[in-house]
Amino acid sequence: MSSLTSESNLDPKPVYREKFRWSDLGMQFLLFGIGLIIALPIIIAILTSFKSPLDINSNPYSIFPESWSFDSYRTAWTSVPFGRYLINSVIQSSLIVAAQILFSIMAAYAFSFLEFPGRNLLFYVILGSLMVPFQLTFIPSFLIVSNLPDQCRVLLGETAALCDNVGANSYFGLVVPFLASAFGVFLLRQFFLGLPRDLHDSARIDGASNFRFLWQIVVPLSKGAISAFGIFSFLSAWSQYLWPLIITNDAQMRTIQIGIRFFLFDQERGVQWGPLMAGAVIVMLPTLLIFLFA
User: Fold this and answer.
1) Domain interval for residue 47
2) Given a cut of 80, is residue 46 above it in pLDDT?
3) Residue 171 in contact with residue 95, Cβ under 8 Å?
């Protein structure tokens, strides 16, 4: 009996091989093709940025450069105040991300844990604003921001120096329409609702205020959701083009997305593809790093 048992234990288990399917292979080729189509413009932009002007003009349809050159990056950096544009974009994006995270956390907490009249109605109004495109509020926002200095002087007096920094051609004008995010409120509220309600009740019994409960318990437990929204907020702020284009006419206040237009509409030399692609690569770099390492 024991010999039979030992022999049965030594018997190899049958190996089940997954059946080959042509449909799986076709799906893999399809996904690879879609990924290549998406990545090809980025690859071409990167390779073109390392071409010399002679190489671009003599071999416009060649993907790989004949000789690798950094001249396009030098031209892009020196032809326009590229460093200033980059700093403006970093400041604008940082202010928008910080403000949206802060206001979204506090608003989501109020809609999740606090009881007040009209809470659900107000949340639905905020949620409904997601359906309103920014282009619809574009002109009213521009008029409001443009008139902010005059309204500021009415309130603070004609000599108020602060009023010169709240309208067009200012960091405040660049970020004020985007300080709050309805999507952020919705996303964090849904996450906060998934937290145990007993945590809030226990904290209130122990004498913790709403402010302390929010920042010491809720926020640490919600780092994943907050980080995900922060990435979304940064990508949205960094890629802004239309609003900075109309709210700034001072070259020192333009963002990097507006700055690279110089190489696209150069009346003397035409389109400068090398510096244009070099500027585009620099603009893409922060978003690519976030996608790869965030």
Assistant:
1) 22-69
2) yes
3) yes
